Amino acid sequence: MDVLKQVMAQPIDPDYAIVAARGQTPSRGRWMLVVTLIALGALLAVAATQNSRTAPVQASERTELIERVRAAETRQDELQAQAAALDTEIRTVRESQLSRTEADRQLRAELAALEIDAAAVAVKGPGVLVVVDDAVGSEASGSEAKG
Prior knowledge:
Layout: H1 2-9, H2 14-22, H3 27-97, H4 102-117
């Protein structure tokens, strides 16, 4: 309560009142403020100028990068098509060359099994069900799957 009474009775800080009575103005602080604002304005002007100068360069680099990505995607598609054609050719040659004798047929069966083991061919089947239940407060067990 005393602070509130003091603020109401003496609204001006005593130090400020002494400086005001001498007739001095806090000019040093104003000059520092003006210099700081001018420096900040100059900094922002330089940044804006550099940004406007580099905008066309950045746009052209972005366009060039997009073109390079599209060219790489096209090349990738071509290589995938070539790999598929070569795979088909290999299978055709293998079928024609490994079907003459019984040993060839056994070798072809062994190759088919090895392709599956090496993940060289697509396989079909029921697949694998993976249940991750190690979260805190998890209720599922390793043999159950919630769905």
